[in-house]
Amino acid sequence: MIGIITTTIKDPPNWKSLIESYKGLEEAKFYIIGDIKTPDLKNIYSKTEYMSVQDQSDFIESLVGRESFPLYWQIFQERNCQRRIIGFLKAVSDGCNYIVALDDDNFPRERE
């Protein structure tokens, strides 16, 4: 399975068309890793898992345990693209063999 991961503070404008372009790639799963400004994107796209800040917190705690959680959680600062690491960990835990990281601010535009 392939995990395709991005962080965002908005609903990426081209995300839906990107997901649609992968329709033939059944083993791809998309992960949107949110931040404190990100709107709730749960269940709006098929084949996509949106992780809110709370979802990320719960996931990291499930990996490292309650005692170690504060130490690990401080690594993943709010408003930081390094939160995508949580997406990498989630994809691996879901069985992804390959990971692709995307930046939601860098989509190709049509020629003018």
Please give the CATH architecture.
Answer: 3-Layer(aba) Sandwich
- State the end-to-end distance: 36 Å
Mean pLDDT: 80
CATH topology group: Rossmann fold
Name the helicity range: 25-40%
Count of separate structural domains: 1
Strand content: 15-25%
Please give the CATH class. Answer: Alpha Beta
Placed side by side, the strands forming the largest sheet appear as 3-2-1-4
What does the model show?
With 112 residues, this protein is an alpha/beta fold. It has one domain (2-103): Rossmann fold, CATH 3.40.50. Helices cover 30% and strands 20% of the residues. The protein is built from four helices and four strands; from the N terminus they run E-H-E-E-H-H-H-E. The chain has helices at residues 15-21, 53-64, 69-73, 84-93, and strands at 2-7, 28-33, 48-51, 98-103. The protein has a four-stranded parallel β-sheet with strand order 3-2-1-4. Helix 1 links the parallel strand 1 and strand 2. The longest helix is centred in the middle third of the chain and has 12 residues, at 53-64. The chain is globular, with a radius of gyration of 14 Å. The protein starts with a strand and ends in a 9-residue tail after the last strand. The mean pLDDT is 80.
